[in-house]
Amino acid sequence: MSVYQLKSRFQDILRPLVRSLAARGITANQVTSVAAAVSVALGLFLSIAPLPRCFLLVPVWFLLRMGLNAIDGMLAREHGQKSILGAYLNEIGDVISDAALYLPFALIDPNDMMPAMAVIFLSALTEFAGVLGQTVGASRRYDGPLGKSDRAVLFGALGLFITVGGTFAAWTFWLWAMVALLLVWTIINRIGAGVREAHRAAR
Predict the structure, then answer these.
(1) Phi, psi of 142 (to 5 degrees)
(2) Residue 165 zone, left/alpha/beta (φ > 0; ψ -120 to 50; rest)
(3) Which of 58, 86, 111, 136 is most deeply packed, by most CB within 10 A?
């Protein structure tokens, strides 16, 4: 199971808003660029000024960003705005945004930032594995158990934890280790699913 599987219901809720935005001339690439820019700005702000109360912005922004990600995709698919540039912006923007938003959590870990940095690296590799499906004759893979939406829930929960006065300690190492294992599992699932899909398409 993955949060990604709830995407279709989320899109149904947003569809009237998307039609309104399209009518106003808002483009998918504009939405994608704004989402990436705000993500990077928020990540830099929390890295420089890691005040606990400010981490409440993380779950709030992740929720808004999930909405913006759904909106840009719907504008592209349902309103004739698909473009090669948009595909690049979408994939690169997501990886950069995730790295920027995860980085503050690595910086506030009093033990060692390397486990969290490994999670950031594996998160990027997870999306790379998903995109590679398209290069071998399969679709863009979104298999779990820890895709982008699932990570948004995880880091949003961590943001709430910090906001209410929670602190990282020795247990954090085991948290990052578990997350890393789930990311490796996700990478394996995406590669395996992509290979199977490509083989079926080639028959």
Answers:
(1) -125, 20
(2) left
(3) 58
CATH classification of 3-202 is 3.40.390.30, yes or no?
A: no
pLDDT in tens, 68-89: 999 999 999 999 999 999 999 9
Q: Read off the pTM.
A: 0.91
- Tell me the CA end-to-end span of the chain in Å, nearest whole number: 29
Q: How far apart are CA 131 and CA 66, in angstroms?
A: 19
Structure tokens at 116: 């969290």
Extents of the domains making up the chain: 3-202
CA Rg value for the chain:
18
How far, in Å, CA of 23 to CA of 31, rounded? 14
Inter-CA distances, 37 with 40, 88, 105, 188, 195, Å: 5, 15, 19, 30, 34
Other beta carbons within 10 angstroms of residue 5's beta carbon come to 12
